[in-house]
Specification:
- This protein is an alpha+beta fold.
- The chain folds into three domains: 74 residues; 109 residues, Immunoglobulin-like (Sandwich), CATH 2.60.40.420; 112 residues, Cytochrome c-like domain (Cytochrome Bc1 Complex, Chain D, domain 2, Orthogonal Bundle), CATH 1.10.760.
- The protein is built from seven helices and twelve strands.
- The strands form three sheets. Strands 3-2-1-5-8 form a five-stranded mixed β-sheet, covered by helices on one side. Strands 4-10-9-6-7 form a five-stranded mixed β-sheet. A two-stranded antiparallel sheet has the order 11-12.
- The chain is elongated.
- The protein starts with 14 loop residues before the first helix and ends with a helix.
């Protein structure tokens, strides 16, 4: 965008589409307003009372006219609705494969960011161009809103639940992160930066930060620390369901319902195990972990459980091995 533009730069694949919809809404809104005021003044002058004795003729209405001015705005509104709905589902339905998963936790007054390979940042997010990035949002305290103006994306971060959206960056550079929901006295300071890099530079940055434990490894440590492994036996029947190949698949419950084992289901099952009991298993076997594990730990456990269903790809394994060789001993 130009130096004098009121819009931030466009840096994602959908930014142009969002701007086009906003432009359409702006043109329609200004056009409708101008048309209404034009007719207000036109009819005020045309049908003004010219003398005290003048009596206007009675108007009984026009059905075709009333249908016209009702149907045309309705059709325009339908276009707005359909266009907005398309963009909403497009932006908040991540691709099923080949996404870079990044986990963002909001906390007064900072954004804590975790990458699958173990890197962590505060108020900084690094992403490559040309690759879909899936962002999972969580809050440790109050309601926040993760806003990326250059990508035309904003999503509320609601305590006690997970929200996801995705984007694909197109233009290298540094772009703002804001919290767009008032969250306390230092709300205005809850800001950060997205650094968009070309794929080669991103891999270089990623390798430079390698050497620590990945999110899956940290999740496995928590899994063992809290004694989960004693009941959730991975390769045989235990007191609790096996977690091998669970994530992303249907789970049949004792009440006959079937749910998908996504991030929200696993989070609820950790914090409130009796909320949904798997068919064939008993209640009150698993302890309640509400208040014992923070949101970052929950995300690490979820990534570990994901890893039990998604074996690492050969290319990813080679990259990890190469990074390990480059790490200082």
């Amino acid at each position: 965008m130009g130096a004098l533009s009121i819009f931030p730069p466009r840096a994602s694949t959908t930014a142009g589409e969002v701007d086009a919809l906003y432009g359409f809404l702006l043109v329609v809104g200004i056009g409708m307003t101008a048309l209404i005021f034009f007719f207000v003044f036109f009819f005020a002058i045309k049908y003004r009372r010219r003398s005290p004795d003048e009596r206007p003729k009675a108007i009984h209405g026009s059905i075709p006219l009333e249908i016209t001015w009702s149907v045309i705005p309705f059709l325009v509104m339908l276009v707005m609705f359909a266009w907005g709905t398309k963009l909403y589902f497009q932006n908040y339905t991540p691709p099923r494969r080949d996404t870079l998963d990044i986990y963002v936790t909001g906390k007064q007054w900072m954004w804590k960011i975790q990458y699958p390979d173990g890197q962590r940042e505060i108020n900084e997010l690094h992403v490559p161009t040309g690759r879909p990035v899936k962002v999972t949002l969580a809050s440790e305290d109050v309601l926040h809103s993760f806003f990326l103006p250059a990508f035309r994306l904003k999503h509320d971060v609601v305590p006690g639940s997970y929200q996801t959206f995705w984007f694909e960056a197109t233009k290298p550079g540094r772009y703002h992160i804001f919290c767009a929901e008032y969250c306390g006295t230092n709300h205005s300071q809850m800001i950060g930066w997205v650094t968009v890099m070309d794929p080669v530079s991103y891999e270089t940055w990623l390798s430079a930060g390698a050497g620590g434990s990945s999110m899956a490894e940290l999740g496995q440590k928590l899994f063992e620390q809290y004694g989960c492994v004693s009941c959730h036996v991975l390769d045989q029947q235990g007191r609790c369901p096996s977690l091998r190949n669970v994530f992303g698949n249907p789970v049949k419950l004792e009440d006959g319902r079937t749910v998908i084992a996504d991030e929200a289901y696993i989070r609820e099952s950790i914090l409130n195990p009796n909320a949904k009991i798997v068919s064939g298993y008993k209640r009150d076997v698993m302890p309640v972990f509400q208040g014992q594990i923070n949101e970052e730990g929950l995300l690490q456990l979820i990534v570990y459980i994901k890893s039990l269903s998604n074996p690492p790809k050969p290319a990813a394994a080679k990259t990890a091995a190469a990074a390990g060789k480059r790490s200082p001993q």
